[in-house]
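Lay summary. Proteins are chains of building blocks that fold into shapes, and those shapes determine what they do. In this project we predict the shape from the chain. Here is one chain we studied, written as its sequence of building blocks.
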Amino acid sequence: MAEAQAFLDSAAAAAALLADPAVASAWEAPSALSRFTVGGLAGHLARQVIMVPELLAADPRPAGQRVCLLDHYARAPWVGAGVDAEINVAVRRSGEAAAACGAVELARRTGSAVGQLRGRLPAEPADRLVQVPGAPWLLSLSDFLLTRLVEIVIHADDLAVSAGIDGPPLPRPATDTVLALLVRLAARRHGPAAVLRALSRAERAPATIAAI
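And here is the predicted shape, written in a compact code that computers can read:
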């Protein structure tokens, strides 16, 4: 499962970023994301890794409707929601809660989760269904890992910027996969012409083609 390897390599890079002393030094400061402290953002990033062993330990045959990857994003209540929307307030609270253990322990827990997953994830079937946290629908494991990969790639950059350091070197397969998915999501949200113009015709580019 190619998604598993891309996720594992990116998760390891995220764990290394979380262990950087610059992140701990900026822990209480505001992050590059509105209303998030650096620590809270670090907690949110770490959760993208730590939640995966928890999901794999859950019921291997969860009840619910399976949806495809694009429909998952179409249904997600946080897509396009304002910074003070209830769903985004809950996301910030979850990040701050995860960060309550402190920078050193959070990095340790993330690294430990990566170690667990290296031994288990490659053996899991790509079509295994998993419950999407906070949602009533299911995704295949391969699709769920892609959603976590999007979170890791985007928030690793957010956290590095917040700590005033360079972002971690992420594997090319991971960034290529995330960019391809974001283009598909942007085209679905704004229309193919808007994305085409934003990428090739600056004089006709729309104000935004934000995918999520």
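What the prediction tells us: The chain has one domain: 2-167.
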